[in-house]
Amino acid sequence: MTVEGIRVSEGWLERREAADAAARARDLVEQVRPRLPSGGRRVIHDLACGTGAMGRWLAPLLPGEQHWVVHDRDADLLAVAAADVPGPAADGASVVVEPRRTDITRLCAEDLAGAALVTASALLDLLTGDELAGLIDLCAAAGCPALLTLSVVGRVELAPADPLDARVAAAFDDHQRRMTVGGRLLGPDAVAAAVEGFERLGAEVLVRPSPWRLGAAEAELAAEWFTGWVGAACEQEDGLGAAAEGYTARRVARARAGRLAVTVGHADLLVLPP
Ligand SMILES: C[S@@+](CC[C@H](N)C(=O)[O-])C[C@H]1O[C@@H](n2cnc3c(N)ncnc32)[C@H](O)[C@@H]1O
Fold first, then answer.
1. Residue pLDDT, tens place only, 135-177
2. Which of 1-15, 62-76, 113-127 has the lowest mean pLDDT?
3. Which atom of ligand 1 is closest in space to residue 123's alpha carbon?
């Protein structure tokens, strides 16, 4: 399992949920709707669901009875996903959530048999190339659309700009591509690799930008994101910590005051089986 040392905090997922919802590419949902089975209960598998934000965003945008099977290996996050269930479907039909403690890299085709839709959010960049290949095969075997949202693409814009931004951004991207016991993480290369892998199997892949745009109204989130961004970069590049000391303090204070506009590039993919 790739990210065995990394735990995502419940608080962080909660604080970013609104920014994620605002960033997600809604027009892809329009493409999903007509491709759902016409009647009956739709089974949707959300892979690496965290606290279940994807379901809370998507379920009320889709019509009909929905059964969300939410998978995560983190029992604490999964408990939140099971408790904080999505509102009713777009037409008022019921939505139920079934939590499953799963290592998604070990799922097999039978686990997703009968799925109407597979979803994942903020996951692809955390995978190795082999794990992504496994996920692509899994989705292909499921034979239904897959909505894979909010993968980082390695584009960060900060306004006003600072001369050190580019060095920090490069070190952060290297950190995202770091070696782990399971192999090298894809980080910002995940989207291109996913598109290529799905298209090789004959699927159509729709790609949409889904950037976070954090301004004065999201000042605390921007400051928290910035702190994590610089922290990861400094962990990656020897000497950057000392060079970035004044920079970090200055930029965090600016972010907290709502005077740093942050754009973090993501992409959403909708995979349509052949
Ligand atoms: C960045 S969080 C995203 C959570 C959620 N999808 C969202 O968008 O809010 C990544 C999630 O992937 C889960 N995860 C990572 N690798 C996993 C694996 N191999 N099996 C199951 N869950 C995994 C983590 O526990 C975490 O909940």
1. 999 999 999 999 999 999 999 999 999 999 999 999 999 999 9
2. 1-15
3. 10
Pocket test for ligand 1, best of 1, 9, 49 (most atoms within 8 A of CB): 49
- 127 Cα nearest atom in ligand 1: 16
For residues 146 and 162, give the distance between their C-alpha atoms in angstroms, rounded to a whole number.
39
The CA distance from 264 to 152, in Å, is: 8
Residues having CB closer than 6 A to ligand 1 are 1, 3, 8, 13, 48-50, 53-54, 72-74, 77, 102-105, 121-123, 126
Q: What single-letter amino acid sits at 58?
A: L
Q: Atom 13, ligand 1: which residue's CA is nearest? A: 48
* 160 CA → ligand 1 middle, Å: 32
Query: Which of helix, strand or coil describes residue 67?
Result: strand
Could you report the per-residue pLDDT of 177-233, keeping only the tens digit for each?
999 999 999 999 999 999 999 999 999 999 999 999 999 999 999 999 999 999 999
CA distances from 72 to 79, 116, 120, 152, 193 (A): 10, 19, 11, 20, 23
Residue whose Cα lies nearest atom 8 of ligand 1: it is: 121
Q: How many H-runs (helices) and E-runs (strands) does the chain carry? A: 10, 10
CA–CA separation, 239 vs 264, rounded Å?
A: 25
Report the distance separating Cα 185 and Cα 190, nearest Å: 9
Q: Among 252, 250, 247, which residue's Cα sits nearest to residue 226?
A: 252
* Residue 104 CA, closest ligand 1 atom number: 20
